[in-house]
Amino acid sequence: MYLNALTIITATLALVDAQAASIFGPIIPGSTGKFGDAPIITNNTVGVTYQAVLPQSTTTSFRGYIIGSSVTNGTGVVFSTNLYGFSDEAALGPFLYHIHESPVPSDGNCTGTGAHLDPYVRGELPPCDPSTPQMCQVGDLVGKHGNITTSPFQANYLDLYISDQAGANAFFGNRSLVIHSSNTTRLTCANFTLLAAAAASSSSGLPPASTPTNAIPDSGGAYAKSASGGAVLMGILALLF
Question: pTM for this structure?
Answer without folding.
Answer: 0.70
